[in-house]
TrEMBL record:
Residues in Mvd1 C-terminal domain copies: 236-335
Record's keyword terms, sorted: ATP-binding, Lipid biosynthesis, Lipid metabolism, Lyase, Nucleotide-binding, Steroid biosynthesis, Steroid metabolism, Sterol biosynthesis, Sterol metabolism
Domain Diphosphomevalonate decarboxylase-like N-terminal: 16-189
E.C. designation(s): 4.1.1.33
Naturally occurring in which organism (per UniProt): Ficus carica (Common fig)
Name of the protein in question: Diphosphomevalonate decarboxylase
Entry GO terms, CC: cytosol
């Protein structure tokens, strides 16, 4: 490690998207390597609305690997974090920052420790794919810091070992996770089917009923399905989908359909009277305008959907949905070069 002082800190910050599967991954054939029993296909969601930001740092002054998630220190000792760290470290390359006078050779990485700070701008472990964005960002940012020379699909196979669905968050647009056949998992990886521009007026509406931490994690849920369900291999999915939580995801083929859908959703699930419409709809609020909804007054004035016959009373479920997220297909992970977006202090390598 050629550098006079021990005080330098080298950092990388990245942002990665979540994804919502339309053909779900549910069930593993290998729990440790996280190998699925089927291929799956997902849409990457616009990171401007839902994303993870992660800063990774290395310094000779760090005496152990440490991580902070949403501002709280968490343990990195779990097998999933360790697998990703090991896989990335084993592929680390030489790194040189001439400006800072830092030179790290690939052999040095085994002795150096990292600090990682990550922030999800949406609820964690609530069924909104935080593990997908989280592990994709973890692997993507570490790969850059350690100058790992692998393509995005190869990185996806590493992120997969953090959380299965994370492999699909290495790409934007429409993504397939190929289950693969190999016992060691090297062919179980994600590929991009088409980018986010392919179907750019697709609208994805998430009805967040609860952002509380789920009682059953996806890992446990799919293990139970594998052990008990005879129907698992016959399942199908259509244009609405639930992940492993109570939050419904509705997919509209274009903005016109989305605005009609939003009118109906808001008719049946109006916000509490003390809420304001702006905080009830997160993400892309322009659909509100398309739907002719500028304020709560307009929501209250919505007529019953025309397809409801006059004599059927239309019950409302005020306050049952906490909020809606309106989003669209989005791009894959990116590096953030602006140091002001880093979550770690560039001098100390500790959370800002
Ligand atoms: N930003 C992050 N960086 C690294 N790991 C994260 C991050 N966010 C979440 N995780 C990991 O993912 C776990 C949550 O995963 P879990 O599958 O239970 O919920 P989810 O991904 O939000 O929901 P689902 O998979 O059903 O959509 C956390 O306990 C943590 O280990
Ligand atoms: C319902 C799902 O979102 C399940 C995602 O499960 P995870 O990827 O969170 O599970 P682990 O691999 O055990 O971490 C379906 C999907 O994303 O395909």
């Amino acid at each position: 490690m050629a550098s006079e002082s021990q005080n330098w800190v080298l950092m990388v910050t990245a942002r990665a998207p979540t994804n919502i599967a339309v053909i779900k991954y549910w069930g593993k054939r290998d729990e440790k390597l996280i190998l699925p029993v089927n291929d799956s296909i997902s849409v990457t969601l616009d990171p401007d609305h839902l994303c993870t930001t992660t800063t990774v740092a290395v310094s000779p002054s760090f005496d152990q690997d440490r991580m902070w998630l949403n501002g709280k220190e968490i343990s990195l000792s779990g097998g999933r974090f360790q697998s990703c760290l090991r896989e990335i470290r084993s592929r680390a390359g030489d790194v040189e920052d001439k400006e800072k006078g830092i030179k790290i050779s690939k052999e040095d990485w085994g002795k150096l420790h990292v600090h990682i700070a990550s922030y999800n701008n949406f609820p964690t472990a609530a069924g909104l794919a935080s593990s997908a964005a989280g592990f994709a960002c973890f692997v993507f940012s570490l790969a850059k810091l350690m100058n790992v020379n692998e393509n995005q699909s190869k990185l996806s196979a590493i992120a997969r070992q953090g959380s299965g669905s994370a492999c699909r968050s290495l790409f934007g647009g429409f993504v397939k996770w190929i289950m693969g056949k190999d016992e060691n998992g090297c062919d179980s990886l994600a590929v991009q089917l088409t980018d986010e521009k392919h179907w750019d007026d697709l609208v994805i509406l998430v009805a967040v009923v609860s952002s509380r931490q789920k009682e059953t994690s996806s890992t446990t849920g799919m293990r139970e399905s594998i052990e008990t369900s005879l129907l698992l291999q016959h399942r199908a999915k259509v244009a609405y989908t639930f992940d492993a939580g109570p939050n419904a995801v509705l997919i509209a083929r274009n903005r016109k359909v989305a605005s009609l859908l939003l009118q109906r959703l808001l008719f049946y699930f109006p916000p509490n009277s003390d809420a304001d419409l702006n905080s009830y709809i997160h993400g892309d609020k322009s659909i509100l305008r398309d739907a002719g909804l500028e304020g709560l007054k307009d929501v209250e004035a919505l007529p019953p959907p025309p397809e409801i016959k006059d004599n059927v009373p239309s019950q409302k479920y005020r306050g049952d949905v906490s909020y809606f997220i309106c989003t669209r297909p989005g791009r894959g992970p990116v590096y953030l070069s602006d140091e002001s977006q880093a979550l770690l202090n560039p001098e100390t390598g500790l959370p800002k």
